[in-house]
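Following up on my earlier message about tryptophanyl-5'AMP. Here are the inputs again, as you asked, copied directly from the submission form:
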Amino acid sequence: MEEKKKIIFSGIQPSGNLTIGNYLGALKNWVKLQDKYDCYFCVVDLHAITVRQQPKDLRRRTLEVLAIYLAAGIDPERNTIFIQSHVPTHCEAAWLLNCFTYVGELSRMTQYKNKSQKYSDSGDPISAGLLNYPVLMAADILLYNADLVPVGKDQTQHIELTRDIAQRFNNIYSPTFTIPEGYIPESGAKVMDLQEPTKKMSKSSGNPNSFILIMDPPEVIRRKINRCVTDSIGKVKYSDDQPGIKNLINILIALQGTTAEEVEKKYENLGYAEFKNDVAEAIVQELKPIQDKVKHYLENKYYLEEIYKKGAEKAHYVSNKVLRKMQKKIGFIPPAR
Ligand code: TYM
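Thanks, got it. Here's what our run produced:
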């Protein structure tokens, strides 16, 4: 008999155009893992509205993220690909789990602290959704009894919280949820900002020169890498004293599977210009075929629709069983048939 595959859940928010950080920290690894696992890959649009979105941009980006999943190599025949808001169990489970999560835990999340600080500095109100966001993420993961959650480093704290919530629920009632593990890639787990290389590269940054988008045209990629901040040391070294260069080396490692030593050796007697040039070409080579496929998928909306329809049906079927279990354990009376 075929052995039951372990389960993976992961998602990306359509809250901005995806960056090479999203690609190297998450998507590229999903593609590698899809053979060995039973995977659920979600476009987490409910997460995206924790900050205000223009409706038409949200619609466009949701489909674009889906197209990027496919173009990067996620096979819709083998994986369940869906849009979060199409599967109502996520919101229902999130409410239940909210009642097993403490405000203190949520307000200690680094991402919440950073984002809420940013909003209060600019005088914008902070939505309760921003605080509760990791509970929705816990619902996403626990509803599928995921064993593994492949994400970038910035999400590890949310996965820890998911584990705590799951353990708490299991202890109060009886074993209900699988306790998930994070899967953080060895390289590419934290791609840094090109202008401030001590900060994480983020799709919500206000400065377009600080990130490379998956959909950036080749000439834009070349320009951004060419202008990225380095240092005056002038040696290609993998060192914390040279965060800009270290970041570019990490990008090369994640793209080409090379090592820091090999890169240092290759550029021992060469300047930054040549090194940057090669990094830019490596990125262009990786992204160009993906970009062409994305354009093709976006011209075939009907095909995308078929995929997210089928994905939502499967995701609803699987997650609804877990939701029912949660409701029963909590003590809700099942609806009369
Ligand atoms: P999001 O949309 O911010 O990012 C999507 C994925 O990209 C990774 N990532 C990075 N990796 C390396 N370097 C970077 N600079 C970088 N920036 C982003 C993130 O770690 C993430 O893996 N809460 C999640 C989405 C989510 C989710 C889930 C993930 C919702 N529910 C359930 C896993 C499981 C988020 O905001 O990711």
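One observation from looking it over: The domain at 208-295 is CATH 1.10.240.10 (Tyrosyl-Transfer RNA Synthetase). Hope that helps, and feel free to reply on this thread.
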